[in-house]
Design a protein that fits this description.
By secondary structure, the protein is an alpha/beta fold. It has 3 domains: 147 residues, 3-Layer(aba) Sandwich (Rossmann fold), CATH 3.40.50.720; 114 residues, no CATH class; 73 residues, no CATH class. The chain contains 13 helices and 17 strands. The structure holds flavin-adenine dinucleotide. The site of flavin-adenine dinucleotide has 33 residues, from helix 1 and helix 12.
């Protein structure tokens, strides 16, 4: 009998499988409907031998030393600082908006101090910041909002930023210096041999069995197990009792191009003139050398795999109802982005999974000697 059935072999499921097997000696069955481990972070070589991210670009960045050190047990890293350009008014300019963005867009040569004054002169101060539009207009004014954010957000969410919670655009910084890095986290690096290789190492413990191409519901009555860790969609777990939690999806169009380099940085955003939102060239992320190059276009979709929870108050209310059901099901741990209906970066999911592991140990639902030793350590 397995001690734990873990549903989903993404970051949430794999971290817990690894901890429970390696630290507590638990017997684990980890199951995924997909044909591979790694969840959305899965990468693979395409037919031309180029390492690509099947579900869109995944860039690792974190401020958590614990998370970075934990993952470092399973991979070496290559330093990588992410940079993004936006195609606006026929130019490719840095995003997040910085000093170079404004100077190049308007043919100016402002200093950082002058840019602060520029922003102050164009900003439309809002007393209450409620929506995604409020966030941006309050900082950089309506014109830059229209050029960089409005249409991108409409494409991505099929909603005007004025209808979307402020959290969507709050993530995007604005700078008055020339820092053109997309992220400013302490640790910015990519797994040297890719994410999938890292997941393989995490799951290579003899106590962990991996079952792919299978929905957990197919095996519930067939394979005995003790407890469950669930990282799939929370509404599915409860048979959509209160209705479906809304998600935004993406369609990925992968291509190989017969040239070593396609674009000047890993990601180019297209806020305005195309149906896709961005184009990623993987070799920047992976460091792979190859005479050809692999790119992916992202087309936002209403239907498809659940990627982004739609941040509206009515959806948060609906999630609360499912959360109450989850709280009343203590034999199952709900972990990860789908089970908690929240957009998380990879490092946040790793941190969440490590926290759940710690709680499992602290709850003392394991009486083995090893668990007690672990408990004494945390
Ligand atoms: C387009 C895109 C780009 C992203 N880019 C970044 C980035 O650059 N940096 C970053 O830090 N984060 C990024 N993320 C977020 C990142 O993908 C997540 O943080 C991470 O994958 C979450 O891991 P998870 O284990 O919670 O979920 P997932 O990776 O989704 O794993 C859940 C797994 O559960 C499986 N499952 C679901 N239902 C069932 C079932 N009934 N039975 C069996 N298995 C089931 C699914 O098949 C899936 O494999 C991005 C996300 C998207 C969508």
């Amino acid at each position: 009998m397995f001690d734990y059935l873990i549903v989903g072999a993404g970051f949430a499921g794999s971290v817990l499988a690894e901890r429970l097997a390696s630290q507590l000696g638990k017997k684990i069955l980890i199951i995924d409907t997909r044909s591979h481990i790694g969840g959305n972070a899965y990468d693979c070589f395409n037919d031309d031998g180029i390492l690509i991210h099947k579900y869109g670009p995944h860039i690792f960045h974190t401020n958590s030393r614990d998370v970075f050190e934990y993952l470092s047990q399973f991979t070496q890293w290559r330093s990588y600082e992410h940079r993004v350009l936006a195609s606006v008014d026929g130019q490719l300019v840095p995003i997040p908006i910085n000093l170079d963005t404004v100077n190049r867009l308007y043919g100016l040569s402002l200093t950082s101090f002058q840019l602060e004054d520029f922003f102050a002169s164009v900003a439309e101060p809002k007393e209450y910041i409620r929506t995604s539009e409020d966030v941006v207009v309050n900082k950089v004014g309506r014109e830059l909002y229209e050029k960089f954010f409005r249409n991108y957000t409409r494409k991505q969410w099929d909603m005007d930023p004025s209808e979307l919670d402020k959290s969507v655009t709050s993530r995007v910084a604005t700078r008055t210096n020339r820092d053109n890095r997309y992220f400013t986290d302490t640790y910015q690096a990519m797994p040297l041999h890719g994410f999938t290789r890292m997941f393989e190492k995490m799951l290579s413990h003899p106590n962990i069995k991996v079952m792919l191409n299978a929905d957990y519901r197919e095996i519930l009555d067939v394979i005995p197990f003790g407890k469950m860790i669930y990282t799939g969609p929370i509404d599915l777990f409860f048979n959509y009792r209160y209705g479906k939690l809304p998600y935004r999806s993406l369609e990925f169009k992968h291509e190989t191009i017969n040239t070593p380099v396609h674009q000047p940085v890993a990601v180019v955003n297209y806020p305005n003139e195309h149906l896709y939102t961005r184009v990623t060239e993987f070799k920047y992320l992976t460091g792979q050398e190859h005479p050809k190059t692999g790119i992916v276009y992202e087309f936002p979709r209403a239907q498809g795999d659940p990627y982004y929870p739609v941040p509206r108050s009515e959806n948060a209310e609906l999630y609360k109802k499912y959360k109450a059901l989850a709280d009343a099901t203590p034999e199952v741990h709900f972990v990860g982005r789908l089970a908690t209906y929240k957009y998380y970066n990879m490092d946040q999911v790793v941190a969440q999974a490590l926290m759940v592991y710690k709680k499992i140990v602290e709850a003392g639902d394991d009486t083995s000697e090893k668990a007690n030793r672990e408990l004494a350590r945390v």
